[in-house]
Amino acid sequence: MTMCLQMSDKISYDPALTKLWEVKREAEKLGLPETIISGLQAVEDLFEAREVYCDGKTSEPSDALSKLMKDTMEHPWQQVFNEGKTKWNISTRMLSGNLEGYVLKFLVSASKAKRVLEVGMFTGCGALGMAEVMPDDGKVVTCEFDPYLVKLTRTFVDKSPHGKKITILEGPALDSLNDLGKKGETFDFIFIDADKPGYCDYFNVSI
Ligand SMILES: C[S@@+](CC[C@H](N)C(=O)[O-])C[C@H]1O[C@@H](n2cnc3c(N)ncnc32)[C@H](O)[C@@H]1O
């Protein structure tokens, strides 16, 4: 999970952009010359232009992935959290999305990985994307500790024929990784995308 910061109605996980917002706010508060403020605004505009450019140059997702992303965005997360069904108020910003999905697909297919491990599943965007470029006997094992997400994601990925390649391990990722290690399971490719404080442990246990 990535740390997320917000500026008025804008939201970003990019620490460079959130730092820029902080500096811009400070510059405005100090009443710095307009050239400085507009210079900072120009940098912010470049961030957005880069994102628009990258999205525009990325191929369309498969129908199944497109549906998964749409269903994720439209899910009543606030309501299910209020009803006590999820561990916390889930943000759709956790979804890896089409661009990151294609980077993963590229890496998995270039490395000819047949066994992939994902730490941090959310609604299965990364897992399904990787499964799509793997051979029929390929396997994606993915870890998720929120029982609501585990159930929901199973229904999302099973709408695709590639869903059968995906095994979901429910529970704290570190426990799942230790169990996999004890069973002597090995992987060709590992995508760590869960809680940041756990990354060093996930990395060390994985190797
Ligand atoms: C950034 S999202 C993963 C996004 C996903 N990889 C994708 O491609 O869309 C992080 C996920 O990790 C899960 N998570 C966070 N801490 C965890 C832990 N200690 N064990 C297992 N899952 C965890 C969260 O519930 C969340 O669904």
Write a structural description.
By secondary structure, the chain is of the alpha/beta class. It folds into 2 domains: 14-56; 63-206, Vaccinia Virus protein VP39 (Rossmann fold), CATH 3.40.50.150. The chain is built from 9 helices and 6 strands. It has helices at 15-29, 34-56, 63-74, 77-82, 97-110, 125-132, 147-157, 173-182, 199-206, and strands spanning 5-7, 10-12, 115-119, 139-144, 166-170, 189-192. The strands form 2 sheets. The chain has a 4-stranded parallel sheet, with helices on both faces. Strands 1-2 form a two-stranded antiparallel ribbon. α1 runs antiparallel to α2, α5 runs parallel beside α6 (125-132) and α8 (173-182) runs parallel beside α9 (199-206). The chain is globular, with a radius of gyration of 19 Å. Bound molecules: S-adenosylmethionine. The site of S-adenosylmethionine has 22 residues, from α6 and β4. Keywords: Methyltransferase, S-adenosyl-L-methionine, Transferase. Belongs to the class I-like SAM-binding methyltransferase superfamily. Cation-dependent O-methyltransferase family. Pfam families: Methyltransf_3 (PF01596).
SSE diagram, text form:
Layout: E1 5-7, E2 10-12, H1 15-29, H2 34-56, H3 63-74, H4 77-82, H5 97-110, E3 115-119, H6 125-132, E4 139-144, H7 147-157, E5 166-170, H8 173-182, E6 189-192, H9 199-206
Parallel strand pairs: 3-4, 3-6, 4-5
Antiparallel strand pairs: 1-2
Bound molecules: S-adenosylmethionine.
Task: Name the strands of the widest sheet in spatial order.
Answer: 5-4-3-6
Q: What is the second-level CATH architecture of the largest domain?
A: 3-Layer(aba) Sandwich
What count of helical segments does DSSP give? Answer: 9
What molecules are bound to this protein?
Answer: S-adenosylmethionine
Pattern of helices and strands: EEHHHHHEHEHEHEH
| Average pLDDT | 93
Largest sheet: 4 strands, parallel
Helix vs. strand class: alpha/beta
| pLDDT < 50 stretches | 1-6
- Let me know the CATH homologous superfamily of the largest domain: Vaccinia Virus protein VP39
State the helicity in percent bands: 40-55%
CATH fold group of the largest domain: Rossmann fold
In whole angstroms, how far apart are the ends? 21 Å
Tell the overall outline.
globular
Percent strand: 5-15%
